[in-house]
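<backbone_tokenisation>
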Amino acid sequence: MSTFSVDLAKFGYKAVNNAEKIVRKIVFDMHSRIVKRMPVDTGRARANTQISIHNLPYHSVLKTDKSGNATISSGGQEVARFNLGDTVFIYNNVEYVLALEFGYSKQAPAGMFRISFDEIVQHLGGVAV
């Protein structure tokens, strides 16, 4: 293998690795923002703000997490599995999450998902589609 081929292979590896790190950071930051914004009564909605790679589960979990720390930690473990080309879902399947997102709670009248997404897009200097 020529020196050029080796250098090109190293460059390709670094490019993919850097892209994966960037996506992981964006997903982790978005998830953390959503969790922290989630209104808290019992902590069930907060605990159900999860990350999944490749598939979108349709069930909720029977956990509670008033602080959000365990949920953020669990999300970090899941996002660490991300590889370039994977599909990542940040989701919440509690039956009342849409009501929370669209202003039902006085704790988060502007929602959690939409406002966090907008913040990340602004931070990256892009325009949401």
